[in-house]
Design brief:
alpha+beta; rbstp2171; two-stranded antiparallel ribbon; about 120 residues
């Protein structure tokens, strides 16, 4: 294909999305998760992490990053968000395994999950 131009890159504008099985929510239960764009990811990171004097980002003490990832990146088949910020309280009461599974899938889409480390 060769080197791409800016116009060609604009044509690849859609963010990746994948289906995640969530057996904790029932037999055959699945949700879509989506990738965040760079700007959105930067805002998310700034809101949920502090960078220490050593330059290493750490979760803010009062933030549940996994839950925040699920709220922001779980979408329907049209790419629309499934959850609103106001859903955090009841969603946080759901099983840890399901939230962790979905959050890990989001991190994998961004090259930051366990799959990327292996």
């Amino acid at each position: 294909m060769g080197c791409l131009t800016a116009e060609q890159i604009k044509g690849f504008g859609t963010l990746r999305r994948e289906c995640v099985e969530v057996p904790e929510w029932g037999e055959g239960a699945e949700v879509y998760v989506r990738e965040m764009g760079k700007t959105e990811f930067r805002v998310f990171h700034k809101k949920h992490y502090n960078t220490g004097k050593d330059g290493i980002p750490r979760e803010k003490a009062d933030v549940d990053v996994e839950l925040a990832l699920v709220l922001r990146c779980t979408v329907d088949d049209k790419g629309e968000n499934v959850f609103k910020d106001s859903d955090a309280e009841w969603l946080g009461e759901r099983g840890f395994g399901a939230i962790q599974r979905i959050a890990e899938a989001v991190l994998d889409l961004h090259g930051l999950g366990a799959k990327a480390k292996n």
